[in-house]
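pinging the channel bc i need a second pair of eyes. not urgent but kinda urgent?? the chain im working w is below, pasted from the shared doc
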Amino acid sequence: MKKRFALILGGPHAGATRLYGQLGLHPQVLGCRVMEPRFFTDERKWALGVDWYRSLWDFREPDDRVAIEASTDYARHPEVPCPAGRVAQTPAGFRFVYLLRDPVERVAAWHAARVSEGFAEPAADLDDLRTEIAASRYASQLASWREHFGAEDFLLLPSEEWAERPAAVLERVCRFLELDDEFTFPGSPPGQFARRPSQARARAWWLGRLGAGRPAAPGRASAALSPRLAETLAGELAGERDRLADEWGFDPPSWRARREV
């Protein structure tokens, strides 16, 4: 039987890790032994071959479970070359679940995390954010994948919906992956944008230094960017949102990168 794989795509702070963890509780899903294996983008690992990749799961014959993994590098073109060609030449069946968070909010969350960890100063400009801006160009990321796979192979999900209605999102993913969608997942996954207490304290300290008052509510990390920079970023990414709507029919109303009217 041809093995079935599902790759959970999404840049940092889009919720892919938590979706991966929750899906792994499904009896028809087989989780990877390694978090973010990066097999298709890491040259050293790619050289080990497909048999090594398969060894990261505990396959038993016959086994019709869906093997899942989540590697953020898979959606970071051009910083990391798109691995779609390598995936396409791998003898297995692949489907893709792509979590898309408001592109401005995702970049802001990434920057806020870098600040709280001491790797960046609070004041940022576009040049500081270029790499993450590229990872939020979702239509461009998808264009590279579409050279090798059809639209029916992808499920695009707003990260905001995953945060607010996790049960409904899990049901959609199960249907897409042809799993039992009536399975009841134990517990409720926390909203993926909630910060740990230590993160919240660090963020409050930085905002206090900036004179920005109280920290933003969980899930609204954009306070780490100046309003002008956030607005500039929204304008720069608006064209990507237009392409997502036109090419994929994906247009979350809450996103800040507004479509042109």
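so The first strand starts at residue 4 and ends at 9. and The chain has a mean pLDDT of 84. — does that match what u expected or am i reading it wrong
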